[in-house]
Amino acid sequence: MKISRRKFVEGTGGGLVATTVPLQAQTAAEPPKTTIKITVNGTVHRIEVEDRWTLAEVLRDHLGLTGSKIGCDRGECGACTVLLDGKNVYSCSQLAVWADGRTVQTVEGLAQNGKLDPLQEAFIEHDGPQCGFCTSGQLMSAKALLNRHPHPDRDQVRHAMTGNICRCGNYNHYVESVLAAAGTLSADARRKA
Amino acid sequence: MNSLKTVGHPTSRIDAQKRVTGTATYTGDLRLPGMLYARVLRSPHPHARIKRIDLSKAQALPGVKTILTHENCDVIWGSGDMRNKRYLFNNPVRFVGDAVAAVAAVDRHTAEEATGLIEVEYEKLPFVLDPEDALKTGAVEIQPGGNLSTNARGQHEPETYRRGNIETGFAAADRVFEDQYSSPHINNAQLEPRVAIAQWDGDHLTVFTPTQGISNCHTEIARDLKLAPEKVRVVCQFMGGGFGNKNQNHDFELMAAILAKNAGAPVKIEFTRKEDFLSVHGRWPTKQYYKIGVRNDGTLTAIQLRGYSGMGPYRKGTGGIAGIEIYQCPHVERMVSPVYTNKAVSANLRGPDYPQGVFGLESLMDDIAASLKMDPLEFRLKNMTRKFQDQTPYTSIGLEDCLRKGAEAFEWKQRWRAPGEKTGPVRRGVGVAMGSFGSNLGRSSAVIDVDSHGMYHVHVGVTDIGTAAKTTMALIAAEELGVGLDKIDLISGDTDRCPYSVGESGSRTTVQTGMAVVQAAKELKEQIAEKGLPPGNDVLTATVNLNPPALNGQARVSFVAHFAEVEIDIEMGHVKVTKYVAAHDSGRVVNPLTAESQVKGGATMGIGMALHEELLYDRASGLPLTAGYYGARIMTHLDTPEVDVLWIQTDDPYGPFGAKTLGEPTIIPSPAAVANAIYNAIGKRVKDLPITRDKVLGVLA
Asked: Which of A83, A110, A112, A133 would best serve as a mutation to test chain B binding (most B beta carbons within 10 A)?
C-alpha cells in the first residue's frame, strides 16, 4: 500500500497533531515588568515593558512607530522585520526585554535628514509596494542585505528576502528595486541576456 | 491606438512615498484615546451545539469590560450568508472557527486571557467535510432544507446553464473524453489581518476598517445594526489587500460596534492570522466531472460539466465553476451544485468562479489535443471563443493575439515537444492556458471640485486594495481635464466625504468609477469654459451618477493567455517554474507600471494555487491542519519566476479611454498553464490541485 505524507497527515497523523491542550485557568496576577533601554532610529528610550510584550508591540503601541506591520505575529510573513544591531529580525518573534541595551532600526529610520534611502527611491520607481503591508519588512531585509553585501545579484537578493512574504505577489518588482538601488540592475540584465 | 498625454504612461503611485516610509496609516496603526481591545473565542469543533456558556471567570478578570455571546447578542450578519440567517454568534456552531464569544478589555493580552477563561460546554454533532458526502442520504443536515444550497431561483437544485442539446453534441463527436478534477479550499491570505475600530459619538457610529468597498460596508453595517445610514461613517485610508474577502461588511466590524456601544468606549478588534485563515473565507473547493466531444479534426461538439463546490456551512459566495465560455462550442451543459459542509466558509478569492474551473477544463482540453496529436496552441487557436457563448459579439477581442504574440514571446515553437518525449532525471515541459473575465459596467459616481487656484479635488469612493486605484483615478481625471497630475487632489476612502462606489471587487473600479470620473471631468470643463475658474473661496462642482451604458447587444470581456515552462526533478517530484509569459487584453492599459505589478502578482498567486496551497483537514476530527502562511506554503521570493508581461491593447469603445478589466483575469489561466506544463514534461496528468511532490511521484510510480 502506498502512503503519502499528505494522506498520512489527512488521516491518522493529523489527529495527533491536532490534539487540544486544555488551557490552564489564569490568575489575575500583575504581569512581570522590566525597565529596558533601547536605541531606536538613533533615539535612546528607557521604558518599562511587560515581559510578555514583543518588540513589534513595543515599537508600534508604545513608541508610535507603526511602519513595521504585524501580518501573522508568529514568525511566518516578515511584515514586522526590523534591524536589531544591524541584523534583520522578525520583531514579532523577539521579546522586548531581549532588546535591552541594543540598537533597533525601523522603516521610519531609513530616510536621513528628509532624504529617502536609495532603496525607498527604487521601491517607488519600480512599483515595489502594491497593498504596501509587507513593504516595510521588504525594505528592512533589503537594507540588511545591502549593508553586508552592497552589490548583490538577483539570486542573492531572492535568498536574502525570502523570509518576506508578499501576497500581492510583486516579488519581481521588489527584486528589481533592490538591484536598482544597489546599482546592479543593468549588470544583472546583461547577465540574464 | 492614439497616444494620450497622461493615461498609458508608466507612473509611480501618487501615495508611493507614504507606502515606503511607513507613514501610510492602516487601520491597525490607529489608536483612539481610551480604546479597548477585543478578541474572539471560536469553536474547536466542526459541528456542535452549545449547551452552556459560563462567563463568570472571564468577567472576574480585572480589565475585562464586556463580553458578547449568542445568549446576549442576536444580531444577524446579513452579508455572511445570502441564503440563511447567520448570526454573529451561532448555535449550533458549524465549523472550526465559528465565533462563540467576543471579549473587550483594557488591552489585548487581557482580552486574550479572558477568552481562555470562558467555559463552554458543547454537545458534539456529526459533521461532514466533503461536498459529495454531504449530499448522500443520511448525511447530517447543516442548514435547514438540506445540504444542497439553493440556485439563483431559490430552488434546491444545481445552478444550470444549457446551450444547444448536449446529447446531439456527443452524437456528432468522433471521440468523447471524460475525466474528473478537484481543487482545494485556499485562503486569500492578504498580508493585513482583520482589524476594525468602532467609535460612538452619541448615536453616530464611525468604523475604521480595511474594506474593499466603503459604500457597501457602510450601508450593510447600518442595515445589520438597524441604524439610519446617515448615522454610520466608514473610513479606510490604506488597506493591506483582500483579494475578495474584504468586500461587504464583516462580522468583526459589527462585533466592534456592539462591544463599543456596550462598553461606552472605542473598541479595536483584532483577528489573529490563524483566525483570518479559518474564520473569514477562502476559495471554494471543487470536484469537477468534465465530458467533452470532439471531431477528429479537433473541432469541439459538446462540453459538459457536473461540478460540486464546498461552501462551508454558510452561503457567502456563488460556488461557481466557470471558464467554458473561452471555447466555441455549439452544445454546452453546466450543472454546478453549491453544497454545505463543516469546513471553513468559502467565497470570493481573485477571479472567483474561474481559476479552478479553467484548471479542469484546460487540463482535459490539453489531453484531447495530445490524443489528437495536435499542438495544444493550435488546438486553442482553432477552438477559442469568437462570440460570447457563441451568440453575442464582443465589444473588442484580443484573445487570438494573446495566444499568437504570447507564444512568440515565449518561443513556444522552439520549446514545445509532444508530451512524454523527454528523458533524464530533470524534465522540462511547457504549457498554455487561456481565460476571460467579464468587464461589465455598472452604476458609479464621482464628484470633482475646482478651486480658484486651479486645483481639482476628485472625490471617489475607492479604497485602493493594492491595485493603485487612487493613482488610476487621478490619471484618468488628469487626462480628461487636460492638467498635470500635480493639479489633482484625490479624496477617497471615507463615506462622509465620498460618493457611492461599487467597491473594489469584480475588477470594476477602473471601468466603472473611472467612467464616472471621465464624465464628471467633462461636465466640469464645460462649466469652466462657460464661467472661468471660480473667484476667491468659491468652487465649481460637477457631480456624476452614471448608469451603465447600453452595450448594444454586445459583451464586454477581458482576455488572457498564459504560458509556463517547468523543470521537474523526477526523483524528488519537485516542480520549478522556469519561464512565464502572461499576455493580456485588458483594453488600453491606464498605468502600465502598476498594471504590470498586478499581472505579475496574479500569475504568482496562480502558480501557488497550482503547486502549493491547500487547507488540509483531518478527516477523523474535522480539524483544519494547515492554517497560516507556513502551512499554506504561500509563494515566496525563491519560488517565484520572472513573469514577462505582454500587453495586447485593444481600444474598447465603452471603457474610460478604451480600458477594460484587469485585476481578476491575471490569475485565471495560471494554475492550468502550470498543470499543462507539468503534463508536457512527464507525460502524466495530475488532476487534483495542488500538484505537490507526492502527487507528481504518485503519477510517475
From this structure: A133
CA distance linking residue B307 with residue B417, whole number of Å: 32
Could you tell me which chain A residue has the CA closest to the CA of B271? A72
A-chain CB neighbours of B642 within 8 Å are 172
User: What is the ipTM, given to two decimal places?
Assistant: 0.97
pLDDT (tens digit, 9 = 90+) per residue, B426-467?
999 999 999 999 987 778 999 999 999 999 999 999 999 999
Number of H helices, E strands in chain B: 18, 24
Residue-wise pLDDT tens digits, B320-376: 999 999 999 999 999 999 999 999 999 999 999 999 999 999 999 999 999 999 999
| For A163, nearest residue in chain B (alpha carbons) | B636
User: Could you report the per-residue pLDDT of B141-190, keeping only the tens digit for each?
Assistant: 999 999 999 999 999 999 999 999 999 999 999 999 999 999 999 999 99
Residue B24 amino acid letter: A
Indicate the angle between helix axes B251-263 and B214-225, nearest 10 degrees.
50
How many domains in chain B? 3
In angstroms, the first-to-last Cα distance of chain A is 48
Cell of B189: 491570505
Residue with cell 464546498: B310
| Cα atoms in the Cβ-side hemisphere of radius 13 Å centred on B593 | 24
What is the pTM assigned to this prediction? 0.96
Beta-strand ranges (E) seen in B400-518 are 426-438, 444-450, 456-459, 488-491
Q: Say if residue B431 is in the same domain as residue B448.
A: no
Structural domain contains residue B187: no
10 Å Cβ neighbour count for B689?
29
Amino acid making up residue B431:
G
Query: Could you give the C-alpha distances from A123 to A78, A118, B8, B563, B589, in angstroms and in order?
Result: 17, 9, 21, 28, 21
Considering the domain architecture, whether residues B363 and B450 belong to the same structural domain is answered as no
Question: By residue range, what is the domain housing residue B232?
Answer: 31-125+194-270
